[in-house]
Structures are given as C-alpha cells and as structure tokens.
C-alpha cells in the first residue's frame, strides 16, 4: 500500500511539472520577435503583363522586416520563408508608381488570431512600366594585341543580333550589344565564348538585370565569337593591258598612286597573291589618255588593311614612238552575204583613226585602209551594223575605237 502511494505521488509531481512547463515556457507569450527579409509576392503580375503589357520594375524585390507577438510555440512555426506577403496588382492598367498594402498568409497551423504583427515598411512602393522589345546587333571588340606581321580582321559573333525584352525605359536606352575578347600576342584565329553587355548611344553600359536577352527563342548570357587572325602582305598595284589598236603594253606610260597596298589573308591565299590589278585596259578601245580614280576591289579571301578605297591611275601612249592618224575610208566591202539576198551598203565613207609606230603610220595612205561588214547575221531591212577596219601591212598599225555602217538586206 505504501509503494502504491509513492507511485501516485511521483506521477502527480510529474504532471505538475509538465503543466508548469507548458504554462511558463511553451505557451509563454513573446513580444516583438524579429522575422526579417520576408519577400513580397505581387499577385497578378503575369495578368497585367498579358492584358496591358506592363511589368513591375523598381520595388519588385522588396522585402519586409516583421515584428511578431505570439506564443513561443507559434513562433517556432514561423520563418521568413513560410510567411507570405502578397500585394494584389491585378487591377493596375497604366504605368506609374504605386503604394499598396500587403496581405499576410501564415503557414498551416497558424491563424491570424495567433499572431500580432507589425511590419516595416507597412506598405510597399513599386514602379510599373510599359513592357517593350527590340532587336539589336552584336558588336565584337578585341581588347588585346597581335604579333608583328599579323592582322585582326573583323570579329564574327554568333548570334550576330539578339532580342531584348524588358521595361521600356531600359530597352529604349540600348543601342547595341557588345562582347569583348581579351587576349594578347595573337598569331592564329581564336574561338571563344564571351559575356554580353548592353551599350547605349554614349558607349556606356546599360543595367541588364531587368532585361531578357535571347536569340531564336533561347536565353543568351554569352556570345560565341570568332576572331580571325590573318597574315599581312604588301603587294604592288598594277594595270593590265590587252594589246590592240596598234600598241602593246610596252608602248604605254602609266602610273598608280599609291603604288602598293597592304592586304591580309590566310597563308594559302596570300601565297597566290602577288599583285592587285586595279583595272584592265583594252588598248584597241583606248583613244584618249586615262587619268582618273579607280575603285579598289579585292579578291575573295583578302582584307584591305590599308583601307584604300581608290587608286589614281594615269595612262597614256608613248608618243615618242607611237603616232595616230585620222583617215577617210571609202572602201567598204561586205563578206558572208546570205544566199538569195542582196546587201546594199548605204554608208559612203567612214572617218577612221589608226595607230602604230610613227614610221609606219606616216607612210599610210587611204588606199591602205578598208572596212569589212560581216553580212552573215543581217536581217531583212535597213540596219546599223559593226564594221571591222583592216590595215595593210604586218599588223603593227591598227584602227582604234568602234565603227558602224548602215546597210540594207533585200531579197533578190
């Protein structure tokens, strides 16, 4: 009996201690306990984007510091990650700055009556802007050096343009996207992935934290760049002559200003490149001296390192050995007349200029020059046709320019 009484006394004492613990510890009220950096959720942000093309910019990352008064057991259920602060923005229709209250949602097992709450700030201020998008080009810059005798050609970027999406105030600032390759002492082509920076009209970086950058529907954080490193070579600038009209290239006086150009290319291309032909002159058609700027056009695979746009070319006949003479040609004959047709030459004479060595030209007479019309391609009726000028001798004297005559073709 005595043992039973002792057991009952121990049980009673344990119950009393448990009750005292619950009353004094578990259910003890704590005041103004801090729960800091609770994130704010903006309800309806997707809706205003879809309905009104609006996005939240400044204030979108707002957090609130809370002070709670509740029982210690309730406090143990609360944290910055399970308390939800919500601002309803679904009714916003226009851009602007708004200040709105937030609602509080507690985790399961905690009701509003269990907690007294003070928040700092007590309301949330945020900015809503019009959403915008545009496509900009990607520009690559080499921040480095190349070895002597090498040239850094234009950088190739992939993709070479990107789509920007975000607040209109930011998107409107962007002029282009930029990537910078930082390498020194280069002597071969480089392939590398480089981070992308958005640049404004003044060359300053634009904050891209609220801007989405993409290409072909894929988010872009870096751009693949190819920096061609080419060998350089200085080559002469020349004029190509087609012999004719009583002269050859040896009878010409010519010059180019400048006389050389520096180009760059792959080694196998440069090996085959020994000069730049600035123009081709058909001497049979060159009547007057040439003195003019000629545009520089390089073959595929070469880069114009000098950035030379034109070359001044001066070409004339060496008059100390070559002469020209204008003559009246009345001997106009036809050849290859079609069967069953009659060819009538209506032009009575042609004024022809011939050119060649001085001694031979001086001895020419009108009897030494005649015109030939090829009648094989004539059509019925009167027409103007090309005329070939023939000069007697060894061919060192020839006509310059083009000539034509009027003829008629009739059935016999």
Automatic annotation (TrEMBL):
Family matches, as InterPro entries: c-di-AMP_regulator (IPR053154), YbbR (IPR012505)
Pfam family, one: YbbR
PANTHER family xref list: CDAA REGULATORY PROTEIN CDAR
UniProt protein name: YbbR-like protein
Protein's organism: Candidatus Avoscillospira avistercoris
């Amino acid at each position: 009996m005595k043992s039973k009484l002792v057991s009952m006394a121990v049980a009673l004492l344990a119950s009393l201690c448990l009750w005292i613990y619950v009353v004094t510890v578990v259910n003890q009220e704590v005041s103004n306990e801090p729960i800091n950096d609770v994130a704010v959720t903006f309800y309806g942000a997707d809706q205003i984007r879809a309905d009104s093309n609006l996005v939240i910019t400044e204030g979108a990352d707002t957090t609130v510091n809370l002070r709670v008064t509740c029982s210690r057991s309730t406090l143990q259920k609360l944290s910055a990650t399970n308390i939800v602060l919500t601002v309803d923005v679904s009714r916003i229709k226009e851009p602007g700055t708004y200040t709105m209250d937030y609602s509080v949602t507690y985790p399961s097992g905690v009701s509003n009556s269990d907690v007294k709450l003070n928040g700092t700030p007590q309301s949330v201020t945020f900015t809503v802007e019009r959403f915008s998008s545009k496509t900009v080009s990607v520009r690559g810059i080499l921040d480095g050096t190349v070895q002597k005798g090498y040239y850094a050609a234009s950088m190739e970027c992939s993709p070479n343009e990107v789509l920007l999406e975000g607040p209109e105030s930011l998107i409107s600032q962007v002029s282009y996207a930029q990537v910078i390759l930082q390498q020194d002492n280069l002597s071969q082509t480089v392939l590398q992935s480089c981070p992308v920076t958005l640049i404004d009209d003044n060359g300053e970086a634009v904050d891209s934290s609220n801007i989405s950058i993409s290409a072909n529907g894929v988010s872009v954080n870096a751009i693949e760049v190819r920096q061609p490193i080419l060998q350089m070579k200085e080559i002469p600038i020349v004029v190509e002559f087609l012999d004719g009209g009583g002269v050859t290239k040896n009878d010409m006086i010519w010059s180019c200003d400048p006389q050389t150009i520096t180009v760059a290319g792959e080694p196998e291309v440069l090996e085959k490149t020994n000069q730049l032909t600035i123009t081709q002159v058909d001497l049979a058609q060159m009547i007057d001296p040439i003195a003019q700027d000629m545009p520089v056009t390089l073959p595929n695979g070469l880069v114009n390192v000098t950035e030379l746009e034109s070359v001044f070319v001066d070409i004339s006949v060496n008059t100390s050995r070559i002469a020209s003479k204008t003559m009246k040609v009345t001997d106009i004959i036809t050849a290859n007349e079609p069967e069953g047709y009659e060819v009538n030459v209506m032009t009575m004479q042609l004024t022809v200029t011939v050119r060649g060595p001085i001694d031979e030209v001086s001895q020419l007479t009108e009897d030494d020059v005649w015109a030939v019309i090829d009648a094989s391609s004539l059509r019925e009726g009167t027409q103007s046709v090309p005329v070939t000028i023939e000069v007697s001798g060894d061919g060192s004297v020839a006509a310059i320019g083009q000539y034509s005559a009027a003829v008629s073709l009739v059935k016999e």
